[in-house]
Amino acid sequence: MLEQLTPSLILGIVAAYFLLLVIISYFTSKDAGNANFFLAGRQSPWYLVAFGMIGASLSGVTFISVPGWVADSQFSYMQMVLGYLLGYLVIATVLMPMYYRLQLTSIYSYLDTRFGGFSYKTGASFFLLSRAIGASFRLYIVALVLQEFVMNSFQVPFWLTVLMTIILIWIYTYRGGIKTIVWTDTLQTFCMLTAVVFTIIAISQKLDLSISGLWVTVDESAYSQIFFFEEGWGDAKNFFKRFLAGASMAIVMTGLDQDMMQKNLSCKTLGDAQKNMFWFSIVLVFANLLFLTLGALLFIYAGETGIEIPTQTDLLFPTIAIEHLSPSIGIVFILGLIAAAYSSADSALTALTTSFCVDFLGFKEKENPEVAAEQKRTRFIVHLGFSLLLFVIITAFWLVNDRAVIDQIFTVAGYTYGPLLGLYSFGFLMKHKVLDQYVPWVCILSPILTFLLSYYSETLFFGYKFGFELLILNGTITFLGLFSISYFDQTDQGKDLEEV
After folding, report:
1. Interior angle at CA 190, CA 128 and CA 104, nearest 5
2. pLDDT number for residue 482
3. Residues paired with 487 in a beta bridge
4. Quick check: 435 pLDDT over 80?
5. Beta bridge partners of 267
6. DSSP string, 267-323
7. Which superfamily, per CATH, for 7-396?
8. Where along the chain do its domains lie?
9. pTM
10. Which SS3 state, helix, strand or coil, does residue 44 take?
């Protein structure tokens, strides 16, 4: 098939898709002021935000790694997805009302009001660290596939592949920001889901399966088990561990993440944002089930046709789509792959730029013309700086990676998002104030203690081994640390903290 779907043709597809994104950017970035770059003037249609957030949530990790993850974990990932629903409910009913009531541009401004400046900067710093690493991991897997199936043919080194990918993303995001991304994410979500559906149909035809036969084949395979209760808490795939981890992951990686919440805050009203979250949650469950179904079919198809399973299972989907199915499926796959890359990285760059400009440089949505012009120049430099940072992280990760990328994402998230979970939980659940100057130390020590407890967990806890629930442990340690430096201010005894 590669004689027809040549590397040159793939590059042409990438160029055409990029041109379409630039055209969208041109029409959505005519007013490139802070109000539009940060929150699209708070005028985004909720249904576009909801659909676009699916692509941003799925990203290249879900597109490539989740199907490959089925070999070892079956459908156990759905236990986390079900936990996401609980997390999204908390976001829609607890966090969103507060964000809209305070009219926040950066969600970390809440920490300034609730605890003080040190807490505010600490929360924003942990977001910058978390999102920079997370976005880099997501973009890495897509760049890896492009390198394997395209750039190696032109003898282009991996670092140059990464650099070109980031440059393309920077070009169509540096002016319009979130106003552009709301529209480009909608296109990219459509491309991702279309690629998965078309690939499932193509493999089903290869296996002579009808729609009903497809579901029976997957259900009767060794990959379809969703719920795991039998081996108790010692099993990394245990339902309760995965469900609670999913709920906490959703809260921190969506509700406490500037990248994801920036899109929600660009909606006109709280009601629109909540409608967006509701529909996004429902569709995301079925989208993840679709990816897992594809993963099972890929392994079934490989087994029946004698296709060798790549050592790095992340490459199974691209291997089959490009080398063993029709050129049209290969083209659709490439579009989905590029969409997956851009949908996560473009919004991440915008969110990183927004957080740094607002949280550390003091930018506001609206300024007088002279100040706005100066801020625009500074924003340009910040946007460029974060683009270079992603390049460095991706290149470094390529040199040391030895596990499935989705595993890396959730492991890192457990350490970097944990302090945010602890900060916001303490802020909402307790009425105490804290000694603000000591908060950074609590948030730095918490991941270190979490790592030590995880490393020695089997010795300390009678064989128990931590999985993705590291996030909960990290958040709990942060919460207890904050409590240890807290005090109750009698002058605020009658004050309702929900007003903060």
Report:
1. 35
2. 96
3. 433
4. yes
5. 44
6. BSSHHHHHHHHHHHHHHHHHHHHHHHHHHHHHHHHHHHHTPPPPSSGGGHHHHHHHH
7. Sodium/glucose cotransporter (1.20.1730.10)
8. 7-396
9. 0.82
10. strand
